């Protein structure tokens, strides 16, 4: 039910209409009775009239009044052609039909669209002056390269803008590949087309099948490496070829030095691999990873990626804690003390001779956070909680160091089984394996057993003992075996098993013996054998020293990304792409070297375009001077970071963050006609193929005249109506008080 009063439109239901009329009659009767009984008839008449007016307003609102404006177009009906000019339209996968050009073949989506727009078939729509034809492009990338990287395709906004600007729209035609990565979902715009009664006809451009291509998707290199050491550089390649490709990944620096690796790319799959690079100089270098163009590949621009990698000398502070000086401890101490990049401290709790003394030895466990916080890596041997060993309070300090200051901890149990006593301390949760309580002294094998690398171990930098990845499995097979191993039942959840016992299995599978995990900001390594020193047989220190050197550097890597006297900064991810959010973690210290308890820590970030942003870090609820914050990366390129303490005399720490230039719009992606089909279905148009273009012209010509545009303002829910009602009720209540009513 509805009725009009000029521009005012009501839509009551039978129930609300009846209720409203009854209410008006009842209130009208009460108003008349009140007026007759009042000693002040004139004033009462005004008040009762106001009461009736308020009631009338409420009843009218109950009938849902709308102010209806009908806009009659003064121009000819228009037919709009929207065409996609985004970067994805440069893909060469559009088949040119005879109806558009006599020259058959595969052209770019952009060239196909231009040929379609230039077709004389559209002229039929303007014959007789019945319609006007307009065309608009959208999605063209900006000229600024940094802005172009973040530019995407928005299929919704161009249609919404068209509806706002055109008052006499008969139909719209959309030529696009259907690929969108910005704005609202396209169905939102299609629904608005439906509300206006304007059908949308879509013409898909491009192939649903990905072009034959090898795409180097990502290179996730670390921010820095140690001079003289290998750096593992992971990369990802996607193949859309229909055959297996054996090719070479080539890594080259700015001096021309290069490293190659043979890789096999299965057809239609994504391959994850890594290549080793040895840093030979300090400072930042620009490297390029590339793969050759394969036969039949259609896109060459995505076969290489450039990135920066900094080489730096390092002084890693290591603390080794042990009881008996077993062979593993002795050779580990020698390996670390002779490493020029390691500053070693040892704490030996000998059960008969007391604490060890001599070069590199300390006599007491660091009792304060500021004393312990200088260590990057802690090795805990056959040590537990005992009167002459560690205390539970010291275990809490060690856990706080790992979780809040990104240090690493290495568990190296021994035949005494002292580490079982750590399970009831703060370190218990950090141990990445579950021990067998029935064999605390470990298990002895009369015949030496080897370690077997897992899939994770074969790709880990920790277990990379050879000079090349290809030779690494042979090196591990040649290593001398071990006779003793820790009593391990299984690894805990969230861990990564790098190596297992080659001959012994438990009820959960092969016994894990080299296991890693993350703990807060730090890292944990479990070494379940005590015979790594035997790896020296025939090769002296080569593999033994290399393994423990890699352990020390891997565990201290994040902690030393950017380190100064008063503040240490590290962040994840190291190689973000535009749109990612980077998490900053910082450790701040006072002028005495103790963790900062009060003060403000902030990071000033300078974007590649020179814009600056300050991120104030929040203090974590610990006694370790740990702070954290977040920054959204908006542009690709080099970001300058400066972490500072808001305190006079505190020097900031400066570092760089390289955001990889992952562009939203990419060529070579398959077309998405299903998106266009859904848009056409919702708007009650249809999707057509290029061969059906003449039929489309006839169908649009047969469409009825566009209906006038109706603009409805719902008065029943408008804020001004509510304000008016409140004001009238306030005046009525005040008038009653002045008239003597209570």
3D structure, described in words:
It is extended and about 110 Å long. The protein starts with a strand and ends with a helix. The longest helix is centred in the first third of the chain and has 24 residues, at about 15-35. It has about 750 residues and is α+β, with helices and mostly antiparallel strands. It is built from 15 helices and 39 strands. Helix 1 (about 15-35) packs antiparallel against helix 2, helix 2 runs antiparallel to helix 15 and helix 6 runs parallel beside helix 13. It has a nine-stranded mixed beta sheet. Strands 31-32-33-36-35-34-37-38 form an eight-stranded antiparallel beta sheet, with no helix packed on it.
Describe how the helices and strands are arranged.
Elements: E1 3-5, E2 8-10, H1 14-37, H2 41-62, E3 66-71, E4 78-84, E5 92-95, E6 106-108, H3 109-117, E7 132-138, H4 145-150, H5 157-165, E8 169-176, H6 186-196, E9 200-204, E10 214-219, E11 224-226, E12 230-239, E13 245-253, E14 258-265, E15 270-278, E16 283-290, E17 304-312, E18 316-322, H7 327-337, E19 342-350, E20 354-355, H8 369-372, E21 377-380, H9 392-405, E22 408-411, E23 433-435, E24 443-449, E25 451-453, H10 455-458, H11 472-478, E26 482-485, E27 488-491, E28 496-506, E29 509-519, E30 522-527, H12 542-556, E31 562-563, E32 567-572, E33 581-588, E34 601-606, E35 612-619, E36 626-632, E37 637-645, E38 653-659, H13 673-682, H14 693-701, E39 709-714, H15 719-738
Parallel strand pairs: 4-7, 4-8, 8-9, 11-17, 18-19, 18-21, 21-22, 22-30
Antiparallel strand pairs: 1-2, 2-3, 3-39, 5-6, 10-12, 12-15, 13-14, 13-16, 16-17, 19-20, 23-27, 24-26, 25-28, 28-29, 29-30, 31-32, 32-33, 33-36, 34-35, 34-37, 35-36, 37-38
Helix pairs in contact: 1-2, 2-15, 5-6, 6-13
């Amino acid at each position: 039910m509805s009725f009009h009063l000029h521009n005012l439109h009501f839509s009551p239901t039978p129930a609300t209409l009846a209720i409203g009329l009854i209410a008006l009659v009842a209130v009208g009767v009460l108003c008349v009775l009140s007026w007759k009984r009042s000693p002040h008839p004139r004033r009462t008449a005004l008040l009762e009239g106001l009461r009736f007016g308020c009631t009338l307003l409420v009843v009218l609102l109950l009938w849902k009044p709308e102010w209806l404006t009908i806009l009659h177009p003064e121009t000819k009906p228009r037919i709009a052609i929207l065409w996609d000019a985004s970067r994805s339209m440069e893909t060469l996968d559009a088949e040119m039909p005879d109806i558009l050009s006599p020259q058959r073949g595969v052209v770019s989506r952009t060239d196909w669209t231009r040929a379609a727009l230039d077709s004389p078939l559209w002229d039929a729509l303007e014959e007789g002056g019945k319609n006007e034809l307009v065309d608009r492009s959208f999605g063209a990338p900006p000229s600024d390269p940094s802005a172009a990287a973040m530019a995407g395709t928005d299929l919704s906004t161009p249609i919404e803008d068209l509806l706002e600007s055109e008052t006499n729209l008969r139909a719209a035609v959309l030529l696009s590949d259907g690929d969108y990565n910005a704005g609202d979902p396209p169905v939102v715009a299609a629904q608005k087309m439906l509300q206006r009664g304007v059908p949308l006809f879509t013409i898909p451009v491009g192939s649903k099948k990905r072009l034959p291509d090898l795409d180097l998707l990502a290179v996730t290199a670390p921010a820095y490496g140690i001079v003289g050491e290998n750096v593992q550089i992971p990369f990802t390649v996607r193949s859309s070829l229909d055959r297996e490709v054996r090719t070479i990944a080539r890594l080259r620096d700015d001096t021309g030095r290069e490293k190659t690796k043979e890789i096999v790319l299965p057809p239609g799959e994504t391959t994850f691999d890594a290549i080793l690079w040895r840093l030979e100089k300090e400072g930042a270098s620009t490297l390029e990873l590339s793969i050759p163009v394969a036969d039949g590949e259609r896109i060459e621009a995505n076969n290489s990626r450039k990135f920066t990698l900094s080489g730096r000398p390092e002084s890693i502070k290591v603390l080794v804690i042990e009881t008996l000086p077993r062979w593993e401890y002795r050779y580990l101490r020698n390996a670390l003390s002779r490493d020029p990049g390691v500053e070693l401290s040892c704490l030996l709790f000998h059960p008969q001779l007391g604490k060890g003394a001599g070069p590199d030895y300390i006599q007491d466990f660091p009792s304060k956070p500021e004393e312990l916080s200088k260590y990057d890596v802690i090795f805990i041997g056959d040590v537990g909680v005992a009167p002459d060993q560690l205390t539970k309070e010291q275990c809490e300090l060690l856990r706080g160091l790992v979780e809040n200051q990104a240090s690493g901890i290495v568990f190296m149990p021994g035949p005494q089984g002292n580490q079982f006593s750590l399970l009831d301390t703060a370190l218990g949760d950090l141990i990445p394996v579950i021990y067998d309580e029935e064999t605390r002294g470990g298990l002895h094998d009369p015949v030496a057993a080897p370690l077997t690398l897992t899939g994770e171990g074969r790709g880990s930098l920790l277990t990379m003992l050879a000079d090349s990845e290809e030779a690494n499995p042979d090196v591990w097979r040649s290593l001398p075996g071990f006779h003793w191993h820790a009593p391990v039942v299984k690894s805990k959840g969230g861990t990564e098993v790098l190596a297992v016992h080659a001959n012994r299995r438990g009820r959960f599978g092969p016994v894990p013996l080299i296991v890693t995990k993350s703990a807060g900001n730090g890292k944990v390594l479990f070494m379940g054998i005590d015979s790594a020193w035997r790896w020296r047989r025939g090769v002296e220190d080569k593999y033994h020293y290399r393994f423990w050197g890699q352990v020390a550097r891997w565990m201290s890597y994040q902690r030393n990304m950017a380190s100064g006297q008063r503040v240490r900064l590290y962040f994840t991810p190291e190689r973000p792409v535009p749109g990612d959010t980077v998490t900053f973690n910082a450790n701040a210290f006072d002028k005495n070297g103790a963790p900062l308890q009060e003060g403000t820590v902030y990071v000033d970030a300078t974007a590649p375009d020179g814009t600056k942003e300050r991120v104030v870090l929040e203090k974590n609820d610990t006694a370790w001077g740990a702070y954290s914050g977040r920054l959204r990366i908006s542009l690709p390129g080099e970001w300058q970071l400066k972490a500072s303490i808001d305190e006079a005399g505190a020097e900031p720490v400066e570092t760089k963050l390289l955001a990889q230039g992952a562009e939203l719009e990419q060529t070579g992606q398959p077309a998405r006609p299903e998106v266009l089909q859904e848009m056409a279905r919702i708007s009650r148009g249809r999707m057509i193929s290029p061969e059906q273009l003449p039929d489309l012209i006839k169908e649009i010509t047969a469409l009825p005249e566009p209906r006038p545009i109706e603009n409805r303002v719902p008065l029943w829910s408008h804020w001004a109506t509510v304000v008016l009602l409140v004001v009238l009720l306030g005046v009525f209540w005040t008038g009653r008080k002045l008239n003597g009513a209570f």
